[in-house]
Design brief:
The chain is built from 4 helices and no strands. By secondary structure, the chain is mainly α. α1 packs antiparallel against α2, α1 runs antiparallel to α4 and α3 runs antiparallel to α4. The mean pLDDT is about 90.
Length: about 140
Amino acid sequence: MITIHLMALKASIRTLLLIGALATVGAGVLTLGVGMDTPWAPWERQSNTMFPPVLFTLASFVATVGFCATTVVFHTWLKMGISNPDKWWRASGILFLVAYGMYSFGSGTVEAAIMLNILHLIVGLPALTLLPRTFRNEQHDA
């Protein structure tokens, strides 16, 4: 079973890196270019310390590639037991964007929450459109 997940990850690596690059550029433009607030730093929960903008921009790449890789594994898992995995995968992705969009308003300032929502749309919309194409191509190759 792990071989199937690894093959799906291998087939989608270019798309994952592209989406990670979009996240990095988006985070850089929003935080470094426009100067929007970043969320609270996760290592300083007891204070109002904000995530440093440069570190946040770099962390956006790592977090995006890691999270999207997890969604590739999730889709592969869905494909094993559901007849229309793309539909369920997209529906769960949209539900995640809505839920995390509301949750992000607890991330510090309203500006930071708006920035996170914009960033998640920069990542989520390409992921919801580009990754299923990768899944279909991987199905034909296997």
